[in-house]
Amino acid sequence: MLQAETEKKVLLEVQGLKKYFPVKGLGMFGGTQQYVKAVDDVSFTLYEGETFGLVGESGCGKSTTGRTIMRLTEPTEGKAVYRNVDIFGQSGKQLRKTREEIQMVFQDPYSSLNPRKRIGSTLQEPLIVHKLGQRKDHTERVMDIMQKVGLQLDHFYRFPHEFSGGQRQRIGLARALIANPKLIICDEPVSALDVSIQSQIVNLLQRMQKEFNLTYLFIAHDISVVRHISDRIGVMYLGKMVETAPTDNLIGKPLHPYTQALLSAVPMPNPRIKRERITLKGEIPSPLNPPSGCVFHTRCPFVMDKCKTVQPLNKEVGQDHFVACHLYD
Ligand code: SF4
After folding, report:
1. N or C: which end of the chain has fewer CB within 10 A?
2. Which atom of ligand 1 is closest in space to residue 258's alpha carbon?
3. Ligand 1 binding pocket includes 220 (Cβ within 6 Å)
4. Contacts of 129 by beta carbon, 8 Å cutoff, 6+ apart
5. How far is the CA of 254 from the centre of ligand 1 (A)?
6. pLDDT per residue over 75-119, tens digit each?
7. Architecture of the CATH domain 5-328
8. What local confidence, expressed as pLDDT, does residue 97 receive?
9. Range with the lowest mean pLDDT among 128-142, 260-274, 297-311?
10. Strand ranges, E, within 108-239
């Protein structure tokens, strides 16, 4: 969990991040170039030791945000300043060093595991790539991490198909931890798991965070999972960040109509507290042709004329509580 407010130290600052994917123009001759605006001017800060949750419906751009920070896909515009250096300006050795310190855990670790390689060799790979420690010590290091994430030592010699979903996610976390990172981007790490296994993995992530002093960017579509693990939460809709706040504030007093709708669908731990269910009308518009003004205006129950033409700015409306909505102008 986050240190005292006064000790907060910035680890990563994402500024005005845009990721547009070009699509082939329509029409007989290709037409004009069009873009899917997957991430459109997103900014947020990660403080050392905290978990920042990024939440929103699928297709809102949260995973693309994580992947772009890692340079798995190149940004269109913006900065990702990690320990005072812009990752997007790095290459070669510098970028490799940053990638050693920032690791990623994926939703489906199976697809990123080589089916023909034993887990022990897969887990040694980051040590070899980043030239960490001596070769003779690698096995010991791998076995130590395997034990920490709840794997057994004989798993070292097994192949990926011999593991359950929960065990594979433990392997994914072990592979991220092995290089001794500072920041882990967890991209939907529990979405593919049964609910009972989900809480085991969330608890494991929390234990590892304490033990290794980690910072997490935790990406998920399920706000009930995100609220459990996050110190602060950012809510994304159609490529935009619409609200950011400390978890208690966001859950206790959501301000953006989209956040209110997301939370209204989550069962409350106290059955005496009832939230009125807000059902959003219509589908999420296409990021190829997002609505003008506020991107949420086609589904917002509080839409005003202004919302259709003027894009709301992200404003601080309470301590560390930001919202992009004309209701708070
Ligand atoms: Fe709704 Fe307007 Fe606020 Fe957008 S700016 S969320 S349309 S009230």
Report:
1. C
2. 6
3. no
4. 96
5. 14
6. 999 999 999 999 999 999 999 999 999 999 998 877 878 899 999
7. 3-Layer(aba) Sandwich (3.40)
8. 93
9. 260-274
10. 183-187, 215-220, 232-237
Beta sheet of 240-246, edge-to-edge order: 102-105, 183-187, 215-220, 51-55, 232-237, 240-246, 321-323, 315-318
Asked if 244 and 260 count as a contact pair (C-beta separation under 8 A), the reply is no
Name the strands in the sheet holding 10-23, side by side, starting at the edge strand that comes first in the sequence: 34-47, 10-23, 77-82, 85-86
Structure-token pair, residue 49: 């030791």
Distance from residue 286's CA to the centre of ligand 1 (Å): 18
pLDDT tens for each residue of 131-175: 888 989 999 999 999 999 999 999 999 999 999 999 999 999 999
For ligand 1, atom 3, the nearest C-alpha belongs to 325
Those residues whose C-beta lies under 8 Å from the C-beta of residue 62, and which sit 6 or more positions away, are 54, 55, 56, 219, 221, 236
The mean per-residue pLDDT over the stretch 110-129 comes to 90
Give the per-residue pLDDT at 17.
Answer: 98
Amino acid at 84: N
pLDDT at 2 over 70: no
299 lines ligand 1 (CB under 6 A): no
Cβ proximity of 258 and 264 under 8 Å:
no
Instruction: Fill in the amino acid letter for 233.
Output: I
Query: For a pocket test of ligand 1, which of 304, 310, 313, 328 has the largest count of ligand atoms closer than 8 A to its C-beta?
Result: 304
Q: In a mutational test of the pocket of ligand 1, which residue from 242, 262, 294, 314 has the highest number of ligand atoms less than 8 Å from its CB? A: 294
Does residue 157's CB lie within 6 angstroms of at least one atom of ligand 1? no
**pLDDT score for 277:** 82
- Percentage above 90 pLDDT, the chain: 78
